[in-house]
Amino acid sequence: MAEFLMPRLGADMTAGKVVKWLKQPGDRIRRGEVIAIVETDKANVDVESFIAGVLEKILVEPGDERLPVGTPLALIRAEGAAEPAALAAAAAVVAAVPVPPAAVAPTAVPGTSEAAELAPAAATGERARVSPAARKRALELRLDPTKLTGTGPEGRVTLADVERAVQAAPAVRAEPSPADAAAARQLRMREAIATSMARSKREIPHYYLACTIDMGRALAWLAERNAGRAVTERLLYAVLLIKATALALREVPELNGFWIDNRAQRSEAIHAGIAISLRGGGLVAPALHNADRQSLDDLMRGFQDLVKRARAWSLRSSEIVDPTVTITSLGERGVESVFGIITPPQLALVGFGTPLERPWVIDGQVVPRPLLTATLSGDHRATDGHRGALFLAALDRLLQQPEAL
Amino acid sequence: MTEDEIRVRVIKTLSGIVPELDPGALRHGMSLRDQLDIDSMDFLNFLIALHQEFGVDVPEADAGKLATIDACVGYLAQALRTRTQV
User: How far is the alpha carbon of A118 from chain B, nearest alpha carbon, in Å?
Assistant: First the structure.
């Protein structure tokens, strides 16, 4: 029997909530199949199973409780001999990361203030004045039982009082309002970003490189390609940047992977983490898997889908955990260059500004060309500036042959 | 379809892309990009949604002509008239 644990979905995650189970006890599970939705600080994540088997038992019902990474959530009866080892390995990865006890948020009782307004009467707030059954039911309903009027012995709040309070006041919300929930989520996202970025700046000795790339050929090729196409078939120029970055990383693989256990661990696969800004603030950088091996059309579809789901707070666990590099583009508002902070434990971040029409010298002639500043933030523990320079040179060369991307 | 009907449907379509849109605060002559936090992906999705709503496929070369609500309404009205005549 294998335990399905609260996964660590990103280096900055310490706890999560089970929002929903998509499988029930007795259901068969394929490897990679989504079995639960977990809310992290950054998204509602579709969590995939690491193994094939049968869901034996659900240990944690969906609810508001934030559970530390590594908490057993369900039991899975694995199929085949090799599979349990795979899960054990996956579980070990999760278990190996220490979870600070402080990461468990104290259980809050949202809705308390409304309850207080609705029933400001007699109660004093002493624990003894609420019956255990009433307390339990009140917490389920997110009411503060000490604020209710008690009709039991010595003004004790009984279960009946709680039920009455709810019926008398149908306006009592069982859920925090969408605005409150969004604000709370914003706050947690900021905390997650703060943790991750502070760790990066504390631990990773960054070096930064920039180069200017003439995007004339690439943009002309793209305009021609898009000209005859229906609106659903068009490419955004960001897709060219993603593909070129992925191909350049093939040539300089030292920049693709993770810094774990005091050494660089390269990744064969190139999973591009695309920085996506969210409405109302915050960002996530989920993976476009195997970006070097996808056609531009496939990448565009994947990119569109990823942005849509990221902004709806709905990502898959593999998309959150897998990125081997991060790509950020801040060109939308005319930013010329971005020197990004590496997402731990990745080894590099590639940044793009906006292509600006500028004078450029070609064959001794000054000509107007759309010039793009591409930057690389590298982890100096893993690579040196020379490697980084080779990467940017490869990126430039690849973008001069857009038809080959 | 009258221009008023087109306008209502354009704004409805836009609110599908920008969920927090307040139609009352929208300035119809001002650039959408300048008053709403939309990027090129949002704008492409807006064009796709307009295509679904009106059946008008805006060519890439014309995308710049839909920068404001007024411009969208004018462009779509013209496109729908042309289509009806054909």
Answer: 30
